[in-house]
Amino acid sequence: MQKQSIVIAGGSGLVGQALLRQIDRSIYDVYILSRQAKESKDVHFVRWDTNSKTIDLDFVPDHIINLAGAGIADGLWTTSRRRELIDSRVNSAKTIAMFLSKHESKPKSYVSASAIGYYGDRGSEILTETSALGKGFLAECCKQWEDAAHHVGAKCERAVILRIGIVLSTLDGALPKMLMTSKLGVYNYFGNGSQFYSWIHIDDLCKMILTSIADKGINGTYNAVTPDPLTNKTFMQEIMKALDSHGLLLPVPTFGLRLAMGEMADVVLNSNRVSADKWKNIGFQYGYSTLDTAIKDVVSRKI
Questions:
Q1: What are the DSSP calls for the chain, one per residue?
Q2: How far apart are CA 54 and CA 284, in angstroms?
Q3: β-pair type (273-274, 126-127)
Q4: Which of 32, 93, 147, 206 maximizes the CB count within 10 A of its CB?
Q5: Is the pLDDT of residue 273 over 80?
């Protein structure tokens, strides 16, 4: 059987690296978009430039996966940082769109990351893919991200947008930040802890991405979360149980978070009770559908 080709934007990030570990090289040839062309045994590195909107590739791949984007919580949301967060997402899609516009053939699929920040702060409302756009910077960033993804998707046979929840990994992302004080025997929840957190194990997210390119029936927008959203306080209690910790669970007041982080505090204070029904309805099998099993796994494997 002839191999299919996958091009990945954002392949050096947390999810991109985990995805590379899961891709079956007997089925797929993998190309990673990079600022610098490199040599590697298992993957091909292809130079791209999101400023000049160029990709040094002379064929249209079977599948494109776009995970590119600056880290939402990696710096305070100054005016310039907000622009960078949006531009890093929108310009990656624009670059891919310009590349595809120069070719007659279409990729079989385009899979783009987005985030549940699309929904804004929604309390206990159950959020499906048809729920309205929320308010605030996170929602606006996701809207521009998805608008750019739709533009690319129109140039492909099929397009999937994944609104990703909190990705569980010990290597980067939200979990290491949540556990920063755990060595001191202290765990924190934010505000009153009643806001819902929707999450996913990093391996299950990678499985969703690969299912999205393999299954021709998957098309449109999907929430990339487990069916087990928890309130922030319960989330931290479950982490403590999973780690068999007898530390203290203490609140971080909302006013303190707002003072220190400004609007970026939305990252931990927004409530997103997100539905995973679209995945359940197509029979997707989660490897880690409960938080305790997910936490135990990422901690024991150090992934």
A1: -PPEEEEEESTTSHHHHHHHHHS-TTTEEEEEEESS----SS-EEEEEETTTTEE--SS--SEEEE-----TTSS---HHHHHHHHHHHHHHHHHHHHHHHT-SS--SEEEEEEEGGGG---TTPEE-TTSPP--SHHHHHHHHHHHHHHHHHTTSS-EEEEEE-EEE-SSSSHHHHHTTTGGGTEEEEETTS-SEE-EEEHHHHHHHHHHHHH-TT--EEEEES-S--EEHHHHHHHHHHHTT---EEEEE-HHHHHHHHGGGGHHHH---EE--HHHHHTT---S--SHHHHHHHHHHHT-
A2: 36
A3: parallel
A4: 93
A5: yes
Q: How far apart are CA 107 and CA 128, in angstroms?
A: 28
In the numeric block, the tokens 């409302």 are attached to 125
DSSP letter at 275 equals -
Rama region for 43: left / alpha / beta (φ>0; ψ in -120 to 50; rest): beta
Q: Angle CA(173)–CA(177)–CA(180) in degrees, nearest 5?
A: 145
Report whether 215 contacts 247 (CB < 8 A): no
Which of 19, 6, 20, 208 lies closest to 108 in space, CA to CA?
Answer: 6
- pLDDT tens for 116-171 read 999 999 999 999 999 999 999 999 999 999 999 999 999 999 999 999 999 999 99
